[in-house]
Amino acid sequence: MTAPIEECQLHGDPSETSVPVDRVMLVKAANSADALWSVEQMLRAGTCSAVIFWAQHVKDSSRRRLHLAAQSTESLFIVVRPLATAQDSSPATLRLALRPTCDGLVIDIVKGRGPALAGPIPVTLQPTPVLFSNRGRAAKPAREGADHIVSALERAHA
């Protein structure tokens, strides 16, 4: 995973998550250029099962380079961008917009192959121990939407 230092923190006991923390590599790049370079190298090396990249502002040329690197590997490549960028152009084959709801989230397909769906896809999320654990929770939430989901789940099970 690559992200600005303040935006992504790994917490929790590996037994409480489906991804063992010891199998996750977090790259804390000093700036956007270093983050883009790191992601491209990880994709080109093909040694990661998945690469998740949190991006705020990425130039078209950089998005294209990452897209080409992703096509050259079998690694799953996910770019997480602000919802405000949903209408920006992108070489990605599949683009999703995720919005929190009281009982989970709604997925809108912004761009995809094949026939368009009639509407958004609602996903009900079941609470897990990780969501209710105060251990390892960041003092400052990384994203407002994630806070909303956790609050809704806590209210539902109170």
TrEMBL record:
Keywords: DNA damage. The lineage of its organism: Bacteria, Pseudomonadati, Pseudomonadota, Betaproteobacteria, Burkholderiales. InterPro entries: P-loop_NTPase, SulA_CellDiv_inhibitor. Transmembrane segments: none annotated. This is Recombinase RecA. PANTHER family: BLR3025 PROTEIN-RELATED, TRANSLESION DNA SYNTHESIS-ASSOCIATED PROTEIN IMUA.
